[in-house]
Amino acid sequence: MPKKYQFLGDNKYIYYHVGTADIFSFYDVNDNEAIDVEEVDFYLARYFNDTIQQADIVYMVGFPKSSEKLEALKKLISNEEIDIFYHDWSEALYFKITKEQYDELSKDLFESRKRAEEDMEEVTYSYKELFGDFEESK
Fold first, then answer.
1. Is this structure's pTM higher than 0.90?
2. Residue 41: which of 103, 94, 113 has the closest Cα?
3. Helix or strand or coil: residue 80?
4. Per residue in 88-107, pLDDT tens?
5. N or C: lower Cβ tally within 10 Å for the chain?
């Protein structure tokens, strides 16, 4: 499935890719209507688990290393031993979490996405309707 981008309203923006691995990255849009700081990533991947000899899913949540949301995550998982991964390119910390933790952490953002999809109005424009004046001014 191709990568998709979607505005959610409330100054939220999402990038997502669904396939063998599902990636949902939520962003804030700043006052200048530019994509601002990435707020959180949700990642799940399906794989064959050799230990239990069946299909399994790994759940992860990632935050930029400067995120204030890291403190909330630390409280949620404070008494558990978890795996933490650092992604050099995005400078994000990824935490391997349980399905229950994934569901709890992602609930509000996925609800926001669902509301945005329900409120979305589909429109169709031709290239000329969108860029006609711009093309003619060249």
1. no
2. 94
3. coil
4. 766 778 888 889 988 998 88
5. C
